[in-house]
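User: Hey, my collaborator sent me this sequence without any context and asked if I could get a structure. I don't really work with proteins. Can you help?
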Amino acid sequence: MMRAAPLPEDLLALLPRRSDEGPRVWLVGGAVRDWLLERPILDLDFAVEGDALALARSVADGLQADYYPLDPSRNTGRVLVQDSDTGKRIYDFAGLRGPDILTDLRDRDFTINAMAVDPFDLGRLIDPTGGLRDLKEKRLRACSDSAFLSDPLRVLRAVRLSQMLELRMEAETITSLKAATHLIESVSPERVRDELMRIFGLAEPSGALRLMLHLNLWEAVFPELPARTDGAAVETALRTLGHAAEILAVLDPVHDEERAADAILGSLVWRLGRYRQAIYENLNAEVAPDRARRPLLFLAGLFHLVGCSSIGPNGPAMPCPAEARMKLAAQRLRLSRRESRFLLRVLSAMHELRRIEDISPLVVYRYFNQAPDAGVGTVLLDLASQLAKQPGPPSGEDWEAALAKSRTLLEAAFERREELINPPSLVDGTKLISSLGLRPGPEIGRLLERIREAQVEGLIQTEEQALEWTRRWIQAGR
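Assistant: No problem. I've predicted the 3D structure and written it out in structure-token form, which is a compact way to encode the shape of the chain:
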């Protein structure tokens, strides 16, 4: 482990030094941990002895950044800096949890997050719980026996950190975690949602989901998907999400030759590698503030794949469509309408892809118009489901057919959009009504859509052809 890198100079210039009048300030938590691990980090947390809200406002003014009073009752404020290179940086300032910095650190969740440094002397580490040793020994250990009881959300954070940093969870920590599992219901839905989105945003979320099963967390976190009703479906879902993570990793904008050496993944890169940057941008587009398509895609994939049985009031399984379960989960987690619609479009697109055998221009058009924002991610999720059908690799013929279908759809999304998905309008409703003597109404919209489909099929190319084609269509009584 290397000594942490210095903080941004523009920020340091606005923080009070130890000799200055004003609050004492320490860099704390995950920022210290990640710098010691030489991991990239944009978010910085500061513990403040004194008025943290006033310091946050002062820093925001000095940086010409946005200021948010995150939790005035707990003396916590946020500074949000827009950066042309990194997008944005977040600086959180919170008042000490107790009379001094040592008490504050001991009251945190895990030892690896309970370290602090002086912003002006990052080489001097304050580590009252042995976090640096745990970090070196790849161990996740709670700061105290009551860590999970004081904040049950930490059970999910433990899962995420252990997977993200490849840490082994200490036995006593596991015991304390399991004892607090039932308390997750007491945590606000918004906090549970945000932690789950971080888990689904991991490079390989299926590992975290497996750990949830092992720690008996599954039904507390996913009450709509009781794992004990269909263990085989859960296993298939986890395999699929694991393959989806592999596919996204091998299609990352930074090419990984070692991953691509695998024959199956290598053929995927050969067929789809030209779209790696476009895929990355598509899946990282925000659906809601700070929540992108990628984690939502994995969440929808889980609900699609686990199955449609749930425990009834008397024990036996009862039918329950995946869409209904997804809606319940979206409501419980306080997801936005846009996010809910995205999730349901992924489910619909997954069903549609399984039915598609021969891809025509019309099939491509209808697929992407039913799932405009979910279509690309679902193509890759469907590829992953092909890999998960059996323990070993798929047959060459089946895999080549799946790749050919995916290539056609992605080519339409990224190279032939104006031709196959969003062709320019040849005629509008007013023109249809005036030229063909039609009455305004819903039928005009249906005719315009059918005209666009005929255009995609190559049957018409001009306004004149569109009007003539529509006239014959109406005369045929279709």
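In plain terms: The two ends are 72 Å apart (CA to CA). You can pass these tokens on to your collaborator as they are.
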